[in-house]
Amino acid sequence: MKAANGFNENSVSTTPLEVRPRRMRFPYEEMTSRFFYDDNPLKSALIASLSSTFPAGEGEFIESVRLFQDKVDDPELSTQIRGFIGQEAHHSQQHKDFNRALQKMGFDAVRVEAIFEKDLAWSIRKANPGQRLAFTVAIEHLTAILAEEFLTNPARLEGMEPAICQLLQWHAVEEIEHKAVAFDLYMSQVGNRKLLRLAMRVGLFMLIYRTSKYMCFMLAWSRTMPTWKQFMAFGRFMFGKNGLFRALRANYRAYFRADFHPWDHDNRALIETWKQKIYQQKYDLAKEKAA
Ligand SMILES: [Fe+2]
Ligand SMILES: [Fe+2]
Known about the structure:
By secondary structure, this protein is mainly α. The chain is built from 11 helices and no strands. It has one domain. It has helices at 41-69, 75-105, 109-123, 129-152, 162-177, 181-189, 193-221, 228-239, 244-254, 268-278, 285-290. Helix 4 runs antiparallel to helix 6 and helix 4 crosses helix 9. Residues 58, 88, 91, 171, 175 line the site of one fe (ii) ion. One fe (ii) ion is lined by residues 61, 88, 140, 143, 175, 178.
């Protein structure tokens, strides 16, 4: 059935572009402080905390997709799944490198990585393949809308050390490129939208709870006590008039529409802008080798 937006509503493979991993490497060693984000310990710990969850989290995305990979008979979707796995595996690797650099700087993101691995294993211990894929779809939507915000509103990343900014922008671009792959797979193999919505509510709660917990760990382990001014700046950054929560709200809600599809919202232009204005060949391993 065709939806009003022209997409095939309950079916597979509606991604309007090629999903292909780029092999990048960013100079994390150029980071000058663990307060790499606006010189603010809380904003920096937030990104460090998210980064700590990426290696195991993206590993779970890959695993949950692989559980259904053999059942796919649409060649286009199969190709996209391979691209998705390649992109997520490479993100995982780059965030591991970033986490090691953070550890050297005094935020023990590597220790948090190990804690999250256990937390995640506990969370999925009783989940069936359909439930695991539903969580992947939900968290993929959250990463895609965060990615959109980072690329739409460059002011959001102001004050961030350039290497880390480049890492997040590249990651954001690929999150947008593959935003519908797990969704299309889920709709073709499981198709239960009620479960998708439940997974989003539980997934968002767990994400906020764990990210806050890991932020506290990293600040406590490094004996960092933010100043009042830094607390206030972080509060505005998250909950203020132009804060992250408000910026993400409409895109978050779109997920709960009865006929939602990630490409209802076509934001391919952001990828083009990145290619033309942000991408730097010196961080692209394939291009560097060829040059
Ligand atoms: Fe990713
Ligand atoms: Fe992703």
